[in-house]
Design brief:
single chain; about 160 residues; PH-domain like; four-stranded antiparallel sheet; three-stranded antiparallel sheet; 5 helices; 7 strands; about 30% strand; elongated
Length: about 160
């Protein structure tokens, strides 16, 4: 249960959750691999202390990416869209469904193939809130649009 669940308003329920795509590990993995290779080379050259130090430092980018991915939360509720990224320095956006004008999805070719992209929510007044590397962004947009559609459905009266 994340911070989104602790900040729900009265009669609000989460209908869909998304997360950051695993692509957030790509660059940290490359950096860690490069540091580990240099550390292994130093170990081979019989420099054990610098080698051990580099191998320990090689884990840091992966740990930072893990914390960043696990602390990111994206949710659609029956009343709002809530987006939060960051652990120490947070970026959040909360927008009521009736204030959303459009939801854009930007995907590169690699993003299309791997299933990630950028969601941009445009609110009334022209405010833009882009969030990068969200997993399944087209589904996230569909869920937002579905909730907006439910919000504006006329209440049916049972007439007998």
């Amino acid at each position: 249960m994340g911070s989104i669940d602790h900040n729900l308003i009265t009669n609000e329920a989460v209908t869909y959750r998304a997360k950051l795509h695993a692509i957030v590990f790509f660059k940290p993995l490359l950096i860690s691999l490069a540091l580990a290779v240099v550390g292994g080379s130093l170990f081979y050259l019989q420099q054990p202390w610098p080698a051990a130090g580099l191998i320990v430092v090689a884990a840091i980018p992966i740990i930072v990416a893990s914390v960043g991915r696990s602390s990111a939360e994206f949710a659609v509720t029956n009343k709002r869209v809530i987006l939060k990224v960051g652990f120490i320095q947070k970026k959040t956006a909360e927008m009521f469904l009736n204030k959303i004008e459009s939801v854009g999805v930007d995907q590169s070719i690699i993003g299309r193939v791997l299933g990630y992209g950028t969601i941009t929510i445009r609110g009334t007044g022209g405010t833009l809130e882009p969030f990068d590397r969200i997993s399944a962004p087209l589904e996230f947009r569909r869920q937002i649009q579905e909730q907006i559609g439910r919000t504006f459905e006329p209440v049916s009266k049972d007439v007998r």
